[in-house]
Amino acid sequence: MKILGRIIKRTGIIILSIIGMLFSALLYAEVDINKATVKEISSLEGIGAKKAQAIVDYRKENGEFKSIKELEKVKGLSKKSVAKLKDKITIGTETTKKKTTRSKKAFTGKVNINTASEKELMQVSGIGKKKARIIIKSREKEKFSKVEDLAKEKGFSKKFVKKISKYLTVE
Question: Residue ranges per domain, the chain?
């Protein structure tokens, strides 16, 4: 009887250990902020519903995040809060714990804003689907004579245009 009692006790401890490991894996699972819902993002420590919604809104406006550092551009997120999230989030296949290269090659050329497709425009960091569509719609009315003309469009500040101008052309 003593042996049977020990076996049951040890089996119970092993089962509890397995359950604990599974729970902790779920608790510390990384969240892909390019795919996650508001609810999933708000499950992260320090991120409430408002900040989670701001992340999703930014993603909709600018396209997928290209780096974790880009989260600092989201209203309400500071460098400090992004640093705390670093080990809990991923950007697609890129994780902060283990660096992996994306299958998509890094963009190195210049994009002609008068001829580029939506997809080509979105290769430029900071230009998401919405901004790419604004560029296309505007150039259908009148071609851009210089890159700086983008600053006249809704959602394109002079500062932003200056920042991305090294990746753009109007040839």
Answer: 31-95, 111-169
**139/115 Cα distance (integer angstroms):** 9
Dump pLDDT digits (tens) for 38-69: 998 888 888 889 998 999 998 888 888 888 88
Instruction: Tell me the DSSP string of 50-84.
Output: HHHHHHHHHHHHH-S-SSGGGGGGSTT--HHHHHH
Cα–Cα distance, 167 to 95 (Å, whole number): 26
Residue 88 is given by DSSP the state G
Architecture of domain 31-95: Orthogonal Bundle (1.10)
* More confident of the two residues 114 and 4: 114
pTM over 0.90: no
DSSP-derived 3-state class of residue 89: strand
Q: What does the pLDDT look like over 112-159, one tens digit per residue?
A: 999 999 998 988 888 999 999 999 999 999 999 999 999 999 889 999
Q: Which CATH number fits domain 111-169: 1.10.3210.10, 1.10.150.320, 1.10.3720.10, 1.10.3630.10?
A: 1.10.150.320
